[in-house]
Amino acid sequence: MKFMSHILKWVCALCCIYNVLPSGLFLPVDCHGELEKTCSGNVELDVQIRDICEQASKEFPRAYTASITDYGAVGDGKTLNTHAFQNAINNLRSFANRGGLILRIPRGTWLTGSFNLTSHLTLYLDEGAVILGSQDPKEWPLIAPLPSYGRGRELPGPRHISLIHGEDLVDVVITGQNGTVDGQGSLWWQRFRNKTLDYTRGHLLELINSTAIVVKNITFLNSPFWNIHPVYCRDVFIQGVTILAPLNAPNTDGVDPDSSSNVCIQDCYIRNGDDAIAIKSGWDQYGIAFGRPSSNIVIQRVIGETTSSAGLALGSEISGGIHDVFVEDLTVVNSASGINVKTAVGRGGYVTNVTIANVQLDNVKYAVWFNSNFGDHPDNNYDQHAFSLVDEINIKDVSGKDIIHAGNMVGFMEAPFKGISLQHIHLNVHGGGFMWKCSSIQGFSSEVVPLPCPQLQGSLNQAVSQVS
């Protein structure tokens, strides 16, 4: 009965998506109400997306302005300015309830270790301004692991703090005239490759449990680890950001919304050594126990290039769940995969109600990759019966050239991935080997070239015959 209900729901949804009732199709009586609800929901989707981005993009006026030079900083690329940044922020906290403040970073190269932000602050980088991360690990102090991860992501124990950090903040803006935050990550990458890291590397920007965050018109360069990591956050707006790292720089994810909601990412260019965008929500039993999903995520007009990873990834850390994700106008070039849903036994969690539309792929190994055996575990105490539930993923209007494999989609035998809908997908697949590979997957398709696996060749008529 549960399976029939699932099929019915998707038949009704697909009728809306195709904007037509196939000839001779008998629609079950129960579907008319569902159809009306689903179509109404689709009409409202644009409004919901606009509301999420408008809410997240709000900026508030500031009453005061100061310069980092007011606190003794020297922008010669050699003088260490950690204390100047820390003293500036400590002083500016007093302005939080007096209309907020802009901290201006003028043209120059400002070498610094990690510093914490404060609420009601705009960090403004002038044209030609570079915040340059120190290569001394002591300038990136250790902090506690995130509770949804249970340990550092790379190594047990604590982890290095991010270069720009904040926790329990409200109303923070990082912007300017396309200034740069440069993590000088080469030292950290080399230590990773040599296996000489003592603790997990720091991000360039991490904001924890914060609300009303705006990051725009900034370049992030050479992060030691992930670039932008909003975790346990709400109302996050990221726009016009450029993220660059060598294509072989390990784990330099672009933007990783993590157990966060109402996140809008627009008009970004990302060329790096891992996923361009990866939506996450905690790791194995720690993420399951923490139980905070990522939801209401909007991604629009993003270009990604990553030879080792995906333009868009969901996972692999999805233990708190991911739901209500809308992606459109995604371009992925010279990459390992275009769209990647990745998980593993022990992750638990779920991925549901995801729409990905208007995707352009060029020179990509896997156009679509669903992987149920990806990644490692924080320890050996993960639940070997915790399977991620993957359902209601709609991928449509995709074109690709120089594709090696159209799709590699493998769910769990114990919990097959369901409700996968592929529509209007045209891929120029030229590589050897398989076109599609599928197992433990269920779904529907329409106008997909090359023809997908039998498990995904179900049509509306076939689906309705199972419930009528």
General description of the model:
The protein has a 21-stranded parallel sheet that branches. By secondary structure, the chain is an alpha/beta fold. Residues 1-8, 16-41 and 463-468 have low confidence and may be disordered. The protein is globular. It has helices at residues 2-18, 29-56, 82-92, 186-194, 284-290, 460-465; strands spanning 64-67, 101-105, 108-112, 115-116, 121-125, 129-133, 142-143, 159-160, 164-167, 170-176, 180-182, 205-208, 211-216, 219-221, 228-231, 234-239, 242-244, 261-271, 277-279, 294-305, 310-314, 322-342, 350-371, 389-410, 417-429, 436-439, 441-449. It folds into two domains: 57-257, Pectate Lyase C-like; 275-468, Single-stranded right-handed beta-helix, Pectin lyase-like (Pectate Lyase C-like), CATH 2.160.20. It contains six helices and 27 strands.
Task: Write a brief structural summary.
The chain is built from six helices and 27 strands. It has 468 residues and is of the alpha/beta class. The protein folds into two domains: 57-257, Pectate Lyase C-like (3 Solenoid); 275-468, Single-stranded right-handed beta-helix, Pectin lyase-like (Pectate Lyase C-like, 3 Solenoid), CATH 2.160.20.10.
